[in-house]
Amino acid sequence: MTTTTAGHAPLPDARPGLDLYDTTLRDGTQREGVTLSVDDKLRVARRMDELGVAYIEGGWPGANPKDTEFFARAADGELALDTATLVAFGMTRSAKNEAEDDALLGALLDARTDAICLVGKSWGYHVDEALGVARDVNLSMVRDSIEYLRAHGKRVFFDAEHFFDGFARDNAYALEVIRTAADAGAECVVLCDTNGGAMPWDVADIVRGLVEELPSQVGLHFHDDGGCAVANSLLGIEVGATHVQGTANGLGERCGNANLFTILADLQLKKGYKLVPSDRMERLTEVSHTIAELCNQSTPSIAPYVGHTAFSHKAGLHASALAKAPDMYNHIDPGEVGNRQRLVVSELAGRSNIVLKAKEFGLEVDAEQARIVLDEVKRRESDGWTYEAADASFELLLRRVAGFLADDDEPFRSLHYRVNVSGGDGDALPGEGPAEAILAVAVGGERKLGAGEGNGPVDALDHAFRNAVNGTWPALDRIQLSDYKVRILEATAGTDATTRVLVSSTDGVGTWDTVGVHPNIVEASWRALSDAYTHAILREGWR
Q: What is the DSSP-derived secondary structure letter of residue 8?
């Protein structure tokens, strides 16, 4: 089998044994502003599994209740992975404890994963100052911890923290640490550039020598403080490393980690390594944007392969050439990663995407309908709307604007609502105080009024709507709001800032996402909720 890229000759099959290791749920969550619930973590893990990575590091069980719950729910069947192996992360035993008495090592065993990644100090300076133990004690901590977990049947990866700094400043001890880990039975010794300052001209020589010396696999973990995390990862793989760690969209502390999406696309589409099936590679852009929304972030528009502008061209020379041969100004076919080519200042830009998206919904739209829909999407995008992670809202928009869903076909029409939120409870978080809502909707010409109480205005509106339409659509009883995210789009606008709300809903079988945008957070929430209800009511007739 061979792999081809746009405008390039066939490339050879993949080098066997090259593993992609995702640490979004642990290292990625150290990015400022990123907080994931347990449900979020489960959703991110499923998306990375759909992409086809080999390993997913779920977090640090025992270090915090959230990660402990994540592993418990995963082990109890809530996370059925298709391609990936779930990995629990932790540190070597404390200097004060024997391995069998160490609580954090015990928590790693309780996580019930087949594989465990242990982090240990490999820079003598850190052993002396941060740990404050003798260097031979640190070696014993590494050895004992790995041997203990191996004796319990676990696969063990060893993250050599600060390895590249340690190698540069204390070569002998850094090498002694990783040799100890390999001899103790670590399946893979991962060379970590924890401070992110390693440079490509050093990485290749260092990794090459260790690949030849160590009896274990050699892995890579780079941070991007010097802007070289992806380049360093690719160079390390080129000289023999068989395991590379990274995060979705390069999330991570400070300047982030190596972007696993870029590494995957570079290796598969440029080097020809068949790491994931092509149909999974086509999900790359979708997975990137979905995880970004779950993390309350945005995929950078200039991100390689998956960014909104990754295949954008302004009208003129590029546009005329692209009309004749799309590969003249694209380094790959955008469809290989699920992205699309965009002509920024062209009335034709994006129509094909509307047509293709309509087909996903079982609809056929002509050029004029596509233009109308595209114009409306562009207008809304300028106001802060985004449909990247809200397919249900986009389907409703398309049906309404293209004429497939007339006003008379709408299951209900919002008339008005009023929400009162109580304050003064020092223990309540913002938006979580008791709330009351009264809401009126029109259903088939009949005015229906409902009231509800809830933990915050959104919950109160949800109860009010259900009480108003009680019995009209029994299927709504199965529908639950499973996630709610708020993003402020104009941070400099103060209290006048526009708010975007993303709501996820489920009927216990499927999940759909809707979006609402408005300067008033309650109105933005109601718009997202309205779309969620409408989609739930009409979906059986659509599919």
A: S
Each residue's pLDDT tens digit, 489-502: 865 555 568 899 99
- Residue 59's contacts (CB-CB under 8 Å, 6 or more residues apart) are 25, 26, 29, 41, 66, 67, 70, 71, 88, 89
Total Cβ atoms within 10 A of residue 33 = 7
What is the residue whose two structure tokens read 């809502």?
Answer: 437
Q: Are 195 and 162 in contact (CB under 8 A)?
A: yes
Q: What are the residue ranges spanned by the domains of the chain?
A: 20-294, 412-472
Cβ neighbours around 364 below 10 Å, total: 9
**For residue 433, which phi and psi values (nearest 5 degrees)?**
-70, 165
Q: Rounded to the nearest 10 degrees, how much is the dihedral formed by the CA atoms of 367, 370, 374, 376?
A: 120
In order of 20, 159, 173, 273, the CA distances from 207 in angstroms are 17, 14, 16, 20
Rounded-to-integer distance, Cα 179 and Cα 183, Å:
6
DSSP string of 244-290, one letter each residue? EEEBGGG--STT-B-BHHHHHHIIIIII----S-HHHHTTHHHHHHH
Q: Residue 304's beta-bridge partner residues?
A: none
First to last CA, the chain: 37
- 371-416 pLDDT per residue, tens: 898 888 888 888 888 887 788 998 999 999 999 999 888 999 999 9
* Least confidently predicted of 122-136, 370-384, 479-493: 479-493
Q: Which CATH number fits domain 412-472: 3.30.160, 1.10.1740, 1.10.10, 2.60.40?
A: 3.30.160
**Contact (CB, 8 A) for 452 and 471:** no
How far apart, in whole angstroms, are the C-alpha atoms of residue 4 and residue 89?
37
Q: Which residues pair with 443 in a beta bridge?
A: 446
Alpha carbon distance 125, 522 (integer Å): 53
- The angle subtended at Cα 262 by Cα 256 and Cα 264, nearest 5°, is 120
At position 19, the amino acid (one-letter code) is: D
Q: Give the C-alpha separation, 7 to 380, whole Å.
A: 36
Homologous superfamily of 20-294 in CATH?
Answer: Aldolase class I (3.20.20.70)
Structure tokens that stand for 16 in this block: 């066997």
Contacts of 325 (CB under 8 A, 6+ apart): none
Task: Compute the Cα dihedral for 449, 453, 457, 459 and give only its sign.
Answer: negative
